[in-house]
């Protein structure tokens, strides 16, 4: 009998066809983050057991746009950039497990299949979307990183716009926000192939960055609009109180995590 | 603590955001099938334990293009067709398990995220691709279903063309081919979040159609070309001997399966 | 000096690179048409001189979704269907010129560049969009062509949904509507490369089908919603009175027209 | 009778629907340029009268990848970046007209319709394509701007890859190459709507940047591969002798040109 290889499907004799190579995965990217407070009940209802709401500021939400270049240990994807570049928009809340505070991604859209594949492993609930964010640039009309600089960011899925933001930067910042600042606590879930049976997989995992470097963060404020759609519920996380908005360039390494429950 | 719902991720209080609703899933579609024989060793190396090669004709391969409209029990997706329509190209071989012959999809590309989500449940190793196939039409230059009718079909992924076929129909057919005619035996696989540990999920499942209706099949022959790419191995299934080509319209219901191992 | 060839740009020594080959162009397609009356002033303001509003029913509008397979005289595009298939959604009104009534496309979105190229020649004001329409199918959940059959149709551009329709068929129909039933009167327009100068091209052309065949038309009614967007004005054509909705399969040949003014 | 407005089609009472607003147009972008020499006869055959080959180095070719953010005078597109961002890959040669040397774009692919619209005005022969290029980044695995930095760039159209390059930077450079350094001499061409008649438009126009700023250019060398396709001829511009490769960030203003012939 054959031995098949590959970090994810499809597995073959060589492993070369796998939708994603094995970690570590390396990322260079630009993050545009909008933080606000919603009704804490809207966050709590997204936290299945054994998670509970964060003890402080339980209604805090971050919506993050990210423009990535990513690769495996070989770096080869960077030279065939259709295999390295992707954009994403994701919604993060905080939660508590065994007395520790975690970040948790409750909604996320990406624009490439390899990013969906990594999300399966990491527990990010990825759908496809169309994601755009203004990039800073030193020449021409695009914004410089300076007070008053303005960045747009949008998300659409299934031909419907779901979110729009305009961020205005004010000054350098000590932080890039606080909602997405903890290790992630995610469920990995797959139903049983047999109707009515217990899930085939339903585990709680923890993961964080194995490496991180970043430039100067900037902060400011955002105008944010969330739009309804038949198969989406992001707009239920209504904007009750703005917190702030941030821009930062980062380099990240991801290399696995551990099972919590 | 909250109860979250949803057949797949993301799970929420209502379940409305799930990438896919629960089965049964209903499909209307057009299939263009090309069958041929490759070196049986190329098939065998794609069959992990406890599977073994099919006892007869173990090098038979089917490459199938399908143009689908699909929906859940509510049928609502059909009226918002961006959520119902998708195309796919997939490669099927046969294998043996406990004395029975199964079909098995070894490679597959689709063009929508909800199709990826259904594939996670069913064990289809889905990537994104760009898939096209000629459709029959009663008026104008597109082919009628008649002797001599010619249909083109192509597959690309990551901006590279991977497969091209031109099918010429000759006559009505008793069958739509034989390679994809058995229940499917698929692995559902997810690595451990902890490097070096055993997979979190690695199960063999069986599933077939819970309902099936179909029109008259047609048969003919195909010119088929498979092209190489850095992250694909479909072209290793070299075309040693053509078998035939088929066109058929079908209606399918899928409603779960059972675990084999 | 060289002679360059090609029906449209880019012109080369062989003409092979042209975005579109020369007419005649052949089409097989399915049309879903929604007709209604808007404020006639909204139509009149879209009719530049020397056009004037149609003498009868000047507020009539047709919004048409079409799912096409198209090709040149060689038919070769049909066997490489990424070069043949496209979808479009377009808005047609009627107008008058020298005592004759014409149809006129005032807005149109397509999903392929070769369709944009043909539109440049024909005077259709084509933008890119994402267009979907339910297709009838003889098996599974998709609708048959029968009383009560329901078809959805949607249009989006720049990640915003612009139009949605659900058409319910009632019975066979003598016609496929009347708004798009005349020869087309279109302007072909290009500004001068020199700011402030008269247009380089601004001509009124007439064109119609050089060949036409069609199946049984069906009629019914539609729910239609038009949505606003920053760079679109289709929603100004407000729905004041529904007229009807139609489904028809057609074959069309287009082979040039004549200059009117 | 109505007066319609709009820089390009569709023209309406307000002009708001125009595929593109009027110039000036502003651009921020990153250019990756590969220069080489081909057989001068392959360039000459792409130069229709009244153009002739450049007197010096008539076989020089530049293939340029560009990653743009662009906007009109209002800058509003920058805050809705799906309307501002696009990528392109284009092929430039040089030619001579009335004793002056011009640059001329002979092939170009873009990924947005507003870029096609601007090309109609400027005389760029734009098709749709899928274009990717590695971006420099200060953190993580993406390259810094430094000796040895490597950038990939790819082009595909109609699901076929057409060009691939890997550029390795060596040192800062006085120039960003020389092939694309002249004012552009382009034809604007539209056939007559009447078969067999003279073109409705066939004019030679000149245009260059109305404003330009740029960062330090870098030079190095490239591995470049051009691939054949049924409707493309870029690969006829065979690579006979490499010249060099360049990276530069630029800001550009475009504001019309003048008619040459």
Can you walk through the features of this model?
The structure is a homotetramer of 261-residue chains. The first copy, chain A, has 261 residues and is mainly β. Chain A has one domain: Acetoacetate decarboxylase-like (Beta Barrel), CATH 2.40.400. Helices cover 6% and strands 50% of the residues of chain A. In chain A, strands 1, 2, 3, 4, 5, 6, 7, 8, 9, 10, 11, 12 and 13 form a 13-stranded mixed beta sheet that branches. Chains A and B meet through strand 5, helix 2, strand 10, strand 11 and strand 13 of A and strand 5, helix 2, strand 10, strand 11 and strand 13 of B.
Short account of what is shown:
The structure is a homotetramer of 261-residue chains. Chain A has 261 residues and is mainly beta. Chain A has 2 helices and 13 strands; from the N terminus they run βαββββαββββββββ.
Structural class given helices, strands, pairing of chain A? mainly beta
Number of domains of chain A: 1
C-alpha termini separation of chain A = 34 Å
| E-strand count of chain A | 13
Number of helices of chain A: 2
Mean pLDDT of chain A: 98
The low-confidence runs of chain A, each spanning 5 or more residues with pLDDT under 50, are none
Radius of gyration of chain A, taken over Cα atoms and rounded to an integer in Å: 19 Å
List the helices and strands and how they pair.
The structure is a homotetramer of 261-residue chains.
Chain A: E1 25-37, H1 40-44, E2 52-53, E3 60-71, E4 85-97, E5 100-110, H2 113-122, E6 126-128, E7 130-133, E8 150-157, E9 160-173, E10 184-190, E11 201-214, E12 217-226, E13 241-259
Parallel strand pairs in A: 5-6
Antiparallel strand pairs in A: 1-3, 1-13, 2-4, 3-4, 4-5, 7-8, 8-9, 9-12, 10-11, 11-13, 12-13
